[in-house]
């Protein structure tokens, strides 16, 4: 990822959030520049260039800095390929780049989340040898529950 990729990276990020049925997309180019290129970058991204000034896809990653093993955990936040670029090996090349990054930075694995109803993603990941984590399910505490918990209820 380079600074000049930020406008296209932002477009792809909004695309994946829309695909995931998310709302309230608030990221801006300035925020991505600050968080990705600041003194202590909070995320990194590998991108696939279409060759026409646009990006075909992205793999956005970050680290959870401290785990019980005293090693950080590499997380992939998003893997997204533009719909018109799918089936051309872009996703596989981005995953290969993520795997190289894992090795280069001393990680023995990396993790990510997949929507339960995203059968195409599950098939893709299975096809490259990934497996669902048998030990962990993602949990969340929503705004209403946070309100109740902080109110002592």
Automatic annotation (TrEMBL):
Name recorded for this polypeptide: GNAT family N-acetyltransferase
CDD domains on file: NAT_SF (cd04301)
Residue ranges occupied by any N-acetyltransferase domain in the UniProt entry: 1-152
Pfam families the UniProt entry points to: Acetyltransf_1 (PF00583)
KW Kinase (keyword) present: no
Keyword entries, A-Z: Acyltransferase, Transferase
Coiled coil: none
InterPro entries hit by this protein: Acyl_CoA_acyltransferase, Diverse_Substrate_AcTransf, GNAT_dom
């Amino acid at each position: 990822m380079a600074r000049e990729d930020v406008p296209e990276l932002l477009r792809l990020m909004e695309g994946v959030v829309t695909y995931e049925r998310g709302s309230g997309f608030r990221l801006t180019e300035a925020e991505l520049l600050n968080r990705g290129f600041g003194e202590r970058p909070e995320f990194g991204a590998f991108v696939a260039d279409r060759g026409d000034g646009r990006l075909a896809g992205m793999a956005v990653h970050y680290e959870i800095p401290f785990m019980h093993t005293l090693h950080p955990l590499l997380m992939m936040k998003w893997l997204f390929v533009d719909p018109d670029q799918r089936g051309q090996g872009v996703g596989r090349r981005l995953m290969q780049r993520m795997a190289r990054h894992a090795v280069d930075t001393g990680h023995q694995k990396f993790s990510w989340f997949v929507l339960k109803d995203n059968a195409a993603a599950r098939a893709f990941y299975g096809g490259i040898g990934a497996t669902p984590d048998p030990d962990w399910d993602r949990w969340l505490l929503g705004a209403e529950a946070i309100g109740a918990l902080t109110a002592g209820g």
